[in-house]
Amino acid sequence: MDADKQANIIDGKAFAARLRGRIGAEVARLKAEHDLTPGLAVVLVGEDPASAVYVRNKGIQTREAGMNSFEHKLPADTKAEDLLALIARLNADPAVHGILVQLPLPDHLDSDLVINAIDPAKDVDGFTILNVGRLGTGQSAMVPCTPLGCLMMLNDRLGDLSGLNAVVVGRSNIVGKPMAQLLLGANATVTIAHSRTRDLAAVCRNADIVVAAVGRPEMIKGDWIKPGATVIDVGINRVERDGKSRLVGDVDFAGAVGHAGAITPVPGGVGPMTIACLLANTLTACCRINGLADPATSV
Ligand SMILES: NC(=O)C1=CN([C@@H]2O[C@H](COP(=O)(O)OP(=O)(O)OC[C@H]3O[C@@H](n4cnc5c(N)ncnc54)[C@H](OP(=O)(O)O)[C@@H]3O)[C@@H](O)[C@H]2O)C=CC1
Ligand SMILES: Nc1nc(=O)c2c([nH]1)NC[C@@H]1CN(c3ccc(C(=O)N[C@@H](CCC(=O)O)C(=O)O)cc3)C=[N+]21
């Protein structure tokens, strides 16, 4: 790429607004034709700053799309049995079609146990072992919202991903691993990098697609990006800059913008798409639970 070339900035905020518009139209149709209103329950235990960022936007957007939003805020010292009892109630509640338990949970709670207590039909995060297994075996699943949003932006930008070299940096259950599964499902050649990877710069330089989900501010440098590559920055890191608190990604945006063909900004990239995909999954869950065909917004 020429030195003066700048990457296209992928506008996740606008993309998400379009998706939410389509979801809103489907919700209205569901109401008119079937007298159904999708409902999303969000369970927040304690006060985690990253979770607070997420929950703030989510409740508003759920209601804006015409869905019901049920918020359950529990104290940090909530007992496992009380949290499990709440999940059992939500599983049984016909007005609730999606259940999201904000992660991370306080240390005394076993998040695997809690997540797997969610009815897989209502598991709009796609974190239960049943949905993880379905995704890994190519069966119809609830797909984790963040990777789903990333895939939508990649498909929009690149069309067919077949044979492209994709590097996912990070191997968490909520982002890195499901992202790798989705890319594999889309026929990319997938490398998963993590904290033990040797020469991450060289691994990234080989990639047509870099998805960064590390949680380290601006760790991925501009000259690690192959000219013209597509860069999806999942990282949400709060840092102090010039005496102000700001959000930055895992990619050095200013450095990468001169190398990449396209790049997502932080904020305004993956984050808004994650919430839009949560709404899409809630709508899909509502249709499936009620024996209706998948909505046009499902994948
Ligand atoms: N925009 C959105 O919608 C969302 C954003 N996020 C953000 O994405 C980021 C990642 O989140 P999450 O996946 O939950 O994070 P985790 O902390 O669970 O996972 C981080 C991963 O990065 C790897 N890693 C750590 N250091 C390095 C390094 N120096 N080189 C290479 N790999 C490294 C870790 O490797 P190892 O496994 O070896 O320890 C791990 O696999 C965070 O900033 C988070 O806030 C998360 C969810 C949604
Ligand atoms: N069960 C569960 N599921 C999750 O999907 C989940 C979770 N737990 N725990 C926390 C992480 C983090 N996460 C974010 C989603 C959107 C934004 C987001 O909307 N970000 C805006 C910035 C908002 C601002 O300006 O503060 C943006 O990037 O533009 C951020 C973070 C979902 N997560």
From TrEMBL:
It catalyses: (6R)-5,10-methenyltetrahydrofolate + H2O = (6R)-10-formyltetrahydrofolate + H(+); (6R)-5,10-methylene-5,6,7,8-tetrahydrofolate + NADP(+) = (6R)-5,10-methenyltetrahydrofolate + NADPH. The keyword Amino-acid biosynthesis applies. Keywords: Amino-acid biosynthesis, Histidine biosynthesis, Hydrolase, Methionine biosynthesis, Multifunctional enzyme, NADP, One-carbon metabolism, Oxidoreductase, Purine biosynthesis. Residues 144-287 form the Tetrahydrofolate dehydrogenase/cyclohydrolase NAD(P)-binding domain. Its EC number is 1.5.1.5, 3.5.4.9. Pfam families: THF_DHG_CYH, THF_DHG_CYH_C. Belongs to the tetrahydrofolate dehydrogenase/cyclohydrolase family. NCBIfam families: PRK14186.1, PRK14188.1. This is Bifunctional protein FolD. It comes from Paracoccus pacificus.
